[in-house]
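Thread: quick sanity check before group meeting

JM: Hey all, I'm pulling together slides for Thursday and realized we never actually wrote out the predicted structure for the chain we discussed last week. Dropping the sequence here so it's in one place. If anyone has concerns about the input, flag it before I start.
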Amino acid sequence: ASAQLYEEVPELLRPGGNSYTTRRYAACLRDLDYYLRYASYALVAGDTNVLDERVLQGLRETYNSLGVPIGPTVRGIEIMKDMVKAMATEAGIGNIGFVDQPFDHMNREFSETDL
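JM (edit): ok, ran it. Output follows.
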């Protein structure tokens, strides 16, 4: 997902971009990993409350204080959703609509907040 994100938004890796420097790049990869992990928890639980409690509440304040742009975050989550759906289809899962719920929930929450 990160490779596709950086291909679509290469300015993130350029000087002044939010993934410029090894530290910022690693932080972006770490955050994408968190989103995917907690989306998986929400899928297993069949409930998005874990996303609110463990991901979204703390990140709002963190992203505000660091000036992290929300657009690439939302796009990264969308890419991961598409990849998970493709993997589920390849695994022979017929109805994959349930995969949308945690990813769409995170993106709605991020998009509704002026970060």
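AS: nice. The two ends are 22 Å apart (CA to CA). The domain at 2-112 is CATH 1.10.490.20 (Globin-like).
JM: adding both to the slides.
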